[in-house]
Amino acid sequence: MKLKVFSLHETKTVAENFAKTIKAGDVVILNGDLGAGKTTFTQFVLHSLGVKDFVNSPTFSIVKSYVGKFKFYHIDAYRINLDEAIESGLDEILNEQNAVFFIEWAENISALIPVTHKTINIKFINDTTREIDIKG
Ligand SMILES: Nc1ncnc2c1ncn2[C@@H]1O[C@H](COP(=O)(O)OP(=O)(O)OP(=O)(O)O)[C@@H](O)[C@H]1O
Ligand SMILES: [Mg+2]
To answer: What domains lie within the chain, and their CATH numbers?
Structure first.
């Protein structure tokens, strides 16, 4: 499903609709350039699933966990490779049953990504416009 959004508010609406499809154990891969809106989209999904904490970019901590309707992990693999991911225990975290995962820069740790996952591709069009493609 490919959608064009023209504002942050429209991204929020798309994220809220996507959130309704989330089930325990889901793995969501978010692809897109730096600043495309992967963290922003994740933040909207988590908030709509009952996470109260402020959700900021996990870039400096690799992984952050949240509790709402599900246990969530938000992983940003931008700065790491597979060895570092395993050293950080990401492989064990990804084995956690029933948690829901949102992963940015998953290509850096592709060997750890479960085969079954949902994919969200976000394309920067201009300052406020994005193309959001949801698969799976
Ligand atoms: N329609 C929109 N949808 C999403 N983000 C938007 C939109 N319009 C403007 N933005 C802005 O674009 C920026 C997206 O930043 P964000 O941190 O979410 O990107 P990212 O893909 O996670 O980048 P990184 O790879 O660096 O982690 C935010 O500042 C957000 O407010
Ligand atoms: Mg991000």
So the answer is: 2-135 (3.40.50.300)
Beta-carbon-side half-sphere exposure of residue 30 (alpha carbons within 13 Å): 26
Spatial strand order of the sheet with 63-67 comes to: 2-5, 130-135, 118-124, 27-31, 100-104, 71-76, 63-67
Q: Is the CB of 104 under 6 A from ligand 1?
A: yes
The answer to pTM > 0.85 is yes
**Which ligand has the minimum distance to the alpha carbon of residue 31?**
1
Q: What is the pLDDT of residues 70-129, one digit of tens each?
A: 999 999 999 999 999 999 999 999 999 999 999 999 999 999 999 999 999 999 999 999
Q: Atom 5 (ligand 1): residue with closest C-alpha? A: 37
pLDDT digits (tens, 9 = 90+) for 28-83: 999 999 999 999 999 999 999 999 986 676 656 899 999 999 999 999 999 999 99
35 Cα–ligand 1 center, Å:
5
For 101, the enclosing helix (H) or strand (E) is: strand 100-104
Query: Which ligand gives the minimal distance to the CA of 78?
Result: 1
